[in-house]
């Protein structure tokens, strides 16, 4: 490809080809041709490919999508051919909905690229009656259109804008087929290598915000951070250049209906239909594959569907968790969700939903709650933390909101990596795997030689921010807390903890009484006899039951007797990645834009004590500021 020709959906600045190639050191004459030749030679060697004829323009644009990496391009080609084999229902030759005269959506490509060479695609959902099967027809048509772009559109990524303003969001969600959408996302990212630069959803319905709050954790973190909900065009124009949008969205480009018809003209052309017929032959014969089979975690039969049901309750649409969303920091056992619900007799259909409904109804009656809109998934996790007991959950919710009111400094939406010093003197994190009993392990190694009040204060605040993340994403029955103190100046540590005992007490109170964290074990790893002086400092914070679970390990080789070896980091003889890597991953997660925005949204989840019934604020709240009993530590 020496010039960008052969299509009319996009207009390009004159130097687009050169500038994009230059970003990946492919601008010199013959370099791109050489790269494509290498790919073609590799394709011919793949015995499991049923067709070995690939359009050279497609291969060039794929190389660009893979940032010039031929190895990534090979992986995408292999995955796309495998997807065509195992998910044939998603691939076709003709625009089915257009052929059948059904208008569920109008969808067009904006003619001009952004200054960063990004394509803008706009989809407008129409007020048509949808059923779950319609989503497969929609995504199938979108995939056929994407096939056209993958061989004609030179770009560095795609910005998608979906306009829901004219459709009924409630009906839309009722008909939403999450499994189909998940597979569609996988095909676009893993098969075609589409680089998502922004997902913008436009609607004035509150249901959209609730839905996106659930959807974002299910997406890869990088893409999740690029999901935006807009209530109006002004908000949209702050993120997407107004002048590049269609007339319908206040832009300078033609109406979306015109751009839609233009897309249909080219995608539905005889030439493209013939191309699609040839591309359907690009499949795999797995019996001929040499070496390891491709990772089929994203393929039919092993697709982890989002498994979210939308049901109607009191004329509202609510989301029901049927599977724990995947998370890059936290792994789950295959049956964690059902096994934990079963422990508390909540495994029968709709039992958990009834419990959440009761809890929500109670929340709305609490005059002293400033915010009464609690995410159902967080309520579910709080019910689990409290062993299915709703009365105890109500108490914890009340205390959680009260803590946020009386100790606001612990709940600020801050970037931990930027604002907290000495982050690496305490190397900690939640270990990825659950135990067979669905317990999670918090592990901390400290090398502090000169402990200070500021160091511990920041550590306590970071713990609370980490637990906000766990409240949102984890599903477990409790936590094992393990502290490696072998390199710690234990003498000065005990003195510092004693001097700042009120802050330690506050943190324990928030963890236990606010978040409902259940301590299954408390493990100290040290051979110092001074540990016998630290334990009496800690035990007053614990119940008698938890205090009896304190274990001191004086030999690291004995650690596997209290924590399964498979859960531990590699330096402790386990199979997990090093603790330093886990620590860094957690710092990145709780400092991410997504988590900071989440903390901002919860900033008003507090109480107005002037509206609380006078007889309720009693001794239960001892331990709050002004009533903290100071530690007397000698």
Descriptive key words:
alpha/beta; Phosphatidylinositol Transfer Protein Sec14p; 5-stranded mixed beta sheet; 11% strand
Outline the structure in words:
The protein is of the alpha/beta class and 634 residues long. It has two domains: 1-323, Phosphatidylinositol Transfer Protein Sec14p (3-Layer(aba) Sandwich), CATH 3.40.525; 410-605, CRAL-TRIO lipid binding domain (Phosphatidylinositol Transfer Protein Sec14p, 3-Layer(aba) Sandwich). It has helices at 16-23, 31-44, 56-65, 70-86, 96-99, 132-152, 169-174, 178-191, 206-215, 221-224, 233-237, 256-267, 270-279, 336-343, 351-364, 376-385, 390-406, 416-419, 453-473, 490-499, 501-514, 531-538, 544-547, 579-590, 593-601, and strands at residues 105-109, 119-125, 158-163, 196-202, 227-230, 308-313, 316-321, 426-430, 440-446, 479-484, 519-525, 550-553. The strands form three sheets. The chain has a five-stranded mixed β-sheet. It has a five-stranded mixed β-sheet with strand order 8-9-10-11-12. It has a two-stranded antiparallel ribbon with strand order 6-7. Strand 6 and strand 7 (316-321) form a beta hairpin. Helix 6 packs parallel to helix 8 and helix 20 (490-499) packs parallel to helix 22. It is globular. Mean pLDDT is 85; it is low at 295-318 and 615-634.
